[in-house]
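Page 47, continued from p. 46.
Same chain as before, 140 aa.
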Amino acid sequence: MYEHLTTVRVRYAETDQMDIVYYGNYAQYFEVGRTECIRDLGFTYKKMEEMGVRMPVVSMEVRFFRPAHYDDLITIKTIIKELPQAHEIAFYNEVYNERKKLLTAGKVVLFFIDIHTGKRVDMPDELRETLTPFFTDQAL
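Result:
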């Protein structure tokens, strides 16, 4: 399993009139967490595209438990629970407030797509080699 933490301060524009983060902004928070998680592994979306791979989101699930408010410092935990075996990768997200209370949890699934053909492809070998040590209990 691989975990990464990212912190973000809630901006005023991300809240509604009730001083609560608008639910649609969690997709962006998950993306920030995912992008920084991938960067921490030594990759970027730009690098993936240079390798000939795009990663579109194909599904997203979200559960809301508590609200986040303007100026809260939130922590986005991004977790890769399973080593991808084919053309998809799942990122699990948990968003916490400064008191370490769980606010939101979700799962985002992306496909690896060949940039030229638009068809699904297996995860790039370089990314697989980077992730494998975190999943020593899973079959390669």
